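Lecture notes, continued. The same structure-token format from the folding unit now serves as the input rather than the output. Read the line below as a description of shape only.
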């Protein structure tokens, strides 16, 4: 196990952390006001949102997961959109949703989700007992911690509250897909896309060695995935290449223009390559 990360912050570290927290809360306050309980809250590309939900649903549908998992925590439940869908399909799981944003959590509470516990919390200091959950999943949440040190704190906390043999579906953003996408864009004369101001993407050269001391990185085929495309780590790669490279190249238009007919036409493509920042790791304690 890695050395314990000190929870004692210097004055400068505390000021920086508080400033980062303000950035995050202000960003998601705007998201809450703009999108309310919509699927587009925190992700304004509907195809990405759909593919994210499909992957999560596929994971929960695995016979081994159904057999082994009962207590589930979503860290970063946002406005409760994903939990609402999961609750309707999977009555055999007990769901808990936690979010840092009071504004998003208020919308989630207004859904009145039966048998779903919702709470405000901080991924760096989870207010749950040791080994409370059989499974944890995140959906672009831990990248909102704006230092690697704080991201490590969250990963250690996830390890603490996960039962031995439990699983983590870790859907976050990584620098290799982000850099590959921008390389493809610049090769074709397109401007690079900036990293969102409220995110810090994971670098696999530091992420994998650290996370491997806490969890086993597993191949979905090990837990019963019928084929590699059902739970593909780079499940969004083809969509990103079409939507952020091919489409703006042909139209000379906005790389963030969402849901055009051109992009929808190619949304069926199976994942290929590594051109999306958003990727999924499957972890087991």
């Amino acid at each position: 196990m890695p050395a314990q990360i000190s929870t004692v912050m210097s004055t400068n570290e505390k000021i920086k952390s508080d400033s980062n927290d303000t950035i995050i809360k202000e960003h998601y306050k705007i998201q809450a006001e703009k999108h309310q309980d919509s699927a587009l809250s925190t992700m304004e590309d509907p195809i990405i949102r759909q593919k994210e939900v499909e992957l999560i649903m596929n994971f929960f549908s695995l016979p081994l997961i159904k057999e082994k998992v009962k207590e589930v925590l979503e860290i970063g439940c946002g406005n409760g959109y994903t939990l609402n869908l999961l609750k309707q399909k999977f009555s055999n799981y007990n769901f808990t949703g936690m979010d840092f944003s009071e504004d998003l959590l208020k919308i989630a509470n207004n859904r009145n989700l039966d048998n779903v516990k919702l709470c405000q919390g901080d991924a760096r200091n989870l207010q749950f007992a040791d080994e409370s959950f059989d499974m944890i999943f995140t959906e672009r949440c831990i990248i909102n911690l704006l230092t690697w040190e704080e991201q490590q704190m969250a990963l250690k906390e996830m390890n603490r509250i996960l039962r031995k043999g439990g699983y983590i579906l870790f859907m976050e953003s990584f620098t290799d897909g982000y850099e590959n996408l921008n390389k493809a864009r610049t090769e074709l004369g397109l401007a690079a896309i900036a990293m969102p101001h409220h995110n810090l993407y994971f670098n696999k050269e530091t992420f994998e060695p650290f996370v491997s001391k806490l969890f086993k990185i597993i191949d979905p085929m090990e837990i019963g995935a019928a084929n590699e495309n059902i739970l593909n780590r780079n499940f969004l790669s083809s969509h990103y290449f079409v939507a952020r490279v091919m489409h703006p190249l042909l139209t000379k238009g906005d790389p963030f223009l969402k849901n055009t007919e051109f992009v929808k036409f190619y949304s069926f493509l199976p994942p290929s390559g590594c051109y999306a920042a958003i990727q999924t790791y499957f972890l087991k304690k």
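Point for the exam: Confidence is low (pLDDT under 50) at residues 1-8.
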